[in-house]
Amino acid sequence: MAVPLDFRTKPLSLNAIADCGRYSGRISYWRLYVIENVVRVITHSVLTVQIGPKWWTVAVSPWIDKKVQGVKADYRSQPHRANPGNHDIYYLFLPDLTKIISTHAGLFNPIIPEIDTWIARLESIRLPRNIVGHMNWPNNKDRSDVDRLYRDIKRLHQQLQRPGFNLIIP
Fold first, then answer.
1. What percent of the chain clears pLDDT 90, i.e. is strictly above it?
2. What's the CA gap between 77 and 81, in Å, rounded?
3. Cα angle at 19 between 15 and 20, to 5 degrees?
4. Which of 117, 127, 120, 118 is nearest to 93 (CA)?
5. What CA–CA distance (Å, rounded) separates 60 from 141?
6. Are 20 and 7 in contact (CB under 8 A)?
7. Could you count the other beta carbons within 10 Å of the beta carbon of residue 151?
8. How many of the other CB atoms lie within 10 Å of CB of 86?
């Protein structure tokens, strides 16, 4: 399939915008969805094992918790809308997750020995994630970085599917 041109480089056309949206969704968005949600599950699983089921109150900084509680209030004010999930972790964005992992890297290290490398990798796709998540046009490097991290997160997920460690969906 041919890569469509960025619709912003052509005369206004709803078809061109739609082509770009379909392409970005098919190529990048779903991979970022997997990456971010697997990171949520891993974060929740590691901190549940290392701290306990109530890890949120211990591991999350007050400013992140305040932000999450504000977002949750927005959703409660419109109960007819779908909400991100039951656990507070679903109200976080990738940079927040990375901050929590970084702050508690010592708790992740026994389970994911190369946690510092993973933190750097997650931080490296923050901008491409924002480009795609905010409905803008990723360039070839952005798409390649997302593809690479997607393949690697799949491998990490497989490695964590081992006896003695359970991934727990929050």
1. 82
2. 9
3. 120
4. 127
5. 32
6. yes
7. 10
8. 8
CB 44 within 8 A of CB 89: yes
Q: CB under 8 Å, gap of 24 or more: what pairs does 23-27 form?
A: 24/132, 24/135, 24/137, 24/138, 27/143
The amino acid at residue 44 is H
Distance of CA 102 to the CA centre of its chain: 15
Place of tokens 């480089």: 9
CA distance 4 to 29: 16
Where residue 1 falls among pLDDT bands split at 50, 70, 90?
Answer: low
CA distance 118 to 149: 10
Find tokens 């940079």 and name the residue.
Answer: 95
Alpha-carbon distance 113 to 72, whole Å?
34
The token duo for 9 is 């480089």
List pLDDT tens digits, range 42-77. 999 999 999 999 999 999 999 999 999 999 999 999
